[in-house]
Amino acid sequence: MTSALTPDQISRVKATAPVFAEHGATITKHFYRRMFANRPELRNLFNQTHQESGSQADVLARAVYAYAANIDNLGALGSAVGRITHKHASLNIRPEHYPIVGENLLASVVEVLGDAVDAATLEAWRAAYAQLAQIMIGAEAKLYDNAAWSGYRPFIVSRKVVESDEITSFYLTPADGAQAAGFEPGQYVTVKRYVGELGVDQPRQYSLSDAPHGKWLRISVKREAGNEAVPAGRLSTLLHEGVEEGSIVEVTAPMGDFRLDRTKSTPVVLISGGVGITPMMSMLSTLAAEGSTRRVAFVHACRNGKVHAFKQWLAQTLATNANVSRAVFYEEVGATDRQGVDYDFEGRIDFSRIAEQAVLPDADYYLCGPMAFMQAQRDALVALGVDPARIHSEVFGSGALA
């Protein structure tokens, strides 16, 4: 067991929090370069696209700053620790990885800041990192103990279905013939593929897009085409172009703390943008399969009908579940898009237009989509008087909702 930090160590770590606010990204970028140079095999555990863009370094810098600033009140970190531990468990991060990270992170602090960090402060940070590692390892051990399986497991792509111009579904069945695992609606799995141009395996998280039923695990993947500023998605391209029915993919057990609370009977508002529809499908499909009578508002936004996936599924769900309503917004209505059939409103989501349907005082709100989209929806709901504690979101990329 790691001993508790001394008051002096706590004071030193807290006092250096502003240093990470100012220099954190420089330190963490140096850290990743250093660690991968010393331990190149660890590149298999990290999203190299996020490394290239620098977004992963930014996320780590913010996390280190938050930890330092709240070293005397770790409860203030809220759900952030839970979100990180679920992601770590999904990526198969193990206790033996923590000393490697700690060694390279502390060395990077010294190499970047130099004489600005004295020996006593560095030792305080060493103790603080050991404390954090102990917390994370303990939390992740519980997740591993309760997981359906350990590490990566081979699955067969039993079906591949094109859902829209951008999204394709992959039905994954265990290669050993066993039943597919149960999971909580809203959770995700990590899929790993070898990327030849990088020379390493690459993991990506994908929300499960169907109800848990033991037959298969379904992921529905948007092909990230890329543009001048952002490269095309390596894994999504490989899945769309290189993975056919009968292919084997490596998958970790379902994880994630973004999940539908099935113990409640109060209304549910599911709000998605683009491929963010996937965990909402799992949630709604689960409620429908259970015969739930909870009031459900399904609010979805996308560009137009060509990229609107699962229209038929939603129509069938509405037809057989009188407790479910929908509000679909198309930002750009196409010539063949039919109002009242394919979509309901033109433009972006506007809660003032659907307040009676989707702004409910005792509801829980679930958000998934691009970060800017989720932030806009959260801000709009809070402005309308919704308790922030009732707003839940899934974040796969960089950052967190404010």
UniProtKB/TrEMBL annotation:
Lineage top rank: taxon: Bacteria
SUPFAM superfamilies in the record: Ferredoxin reductase-like, C-terminal NADP-linked domain, Globin-like, Riboflavin synthase domain-like
Domain Globin: 4-141
GO MF annotations, alphabetized: FAD binding; heme binding; metal ion binding; nitric oxide dioxygenase NAD(P)H activity; oxygen binding; oxygen carrier activity
Pfam families for the chain: Globin, NAD_binding_1
UniProt KW keywords: Detoxification, FAD, Flavoprotein, Heme, Iron, Metal-binding, NAD, NADP, Oxidoreductase, Oxygen transport, Transport
Family: Belongs to the globin family. Two-domain flavohemoproteins subfamily.
Record's function text: Is involved in NO detoxification in an aerobic process, termed nitric oxide dioxygenase (NOD) reaction that utilizes O(2) and NAD(P)H to convert NO to nitrate, which protects the bacterium from various noxious nitrogen compounds. Therefore, plays a central role in the inducible response to nitrosative stress.
Protein name: Flavohemoprotein
